[in-house]
Amino acid sequence: xxxxxxxxxxxxxxxxxxxxxxxxxxxxxxxxxxxxxxxxxxxxxxxxxxxxxxxxxxxxxxxxxxxxxxxxxxxxxxxxxxxxxxxxxxxxxxxxxxxxxxxxxxxxxxxxxxxxxxxxxxxxxxxxxxxxxxxxxxxxxxxxxxxxxxxxxxxxxxxxxxxxxxxxxxxxxxxxxxxxxxxxxxxxxxxxxxxxxxxxxxxxxxxxxxxxxxxxxxxxxxxxxxxxxxxxxxxxxxxxxxxxxxxxxxxxxxx
Length: 255
Description:
Blueprint: H1 5-11, E1 16-21, H2 26-33, E2 39-43, H3 51-61, E3 67-71, H4 77-85, E4 90-93, H5 99-109, H6 122-128, H7 132-139, E5 141-146, H8 149-153, H9 155-159, E6 166-169, H10 171-177, H11 189-205, E7 208-213, H12 216-224, E8 229-232, H13 235-253
Parallel strand pairs: 1-2, 1-8, 2-3, 3-4, 4-5, 5-6, 6-7, 7-8
Helix pairs in contact: 2-3, 4-5
């Protein structure tokens, strides 16, 4: 079976940089995959795409060794299983608030007896190899989003769930539920304390910590604080920022 490079890097204590895909385009996914991201996440929660388009995006990502991931729209076993069958090597699940949520999520990603994932790895066997059913549980990443007050209060229970590989901090919802004003790259003292609390807990439980960031500088800061999986913006945000910079550069240079 094809190795999951993220798990290999994390096991060695390293970090990985993740790209985020909102655009419903196989070509955009292919372009992103060739830029050096260790992984790319197709976003079903807030992206403007559907399952059929996502399959073509996964095929485009497969032109590289970039690891394909997906964020599901909710803690829905049916959607989780379908995306794993399509060849995703990891699932990011939003709004995991307690142990029961985490167990429901992890169980959907694991075959019996470890979980209750239904058998039918259609495209996954083409992408990963004919022995995918035998080794999938070792390579599929389970990443629960921590993004509410409730989740932080239940952090130890969530992190102790067998089979949970990582957590992913959703800064916008996390800040919002704590009454913060920022939605990304959190710097308010109260929210910095919350982030530190989350990172400390992941270290105690030997669970990888990930986070969405709005800038390379903040991503690097979070890696230095212990995060091993950082997302830097998304495809459309990067495209918009580069466009604005190019236009501004021309305007500034014209005499």
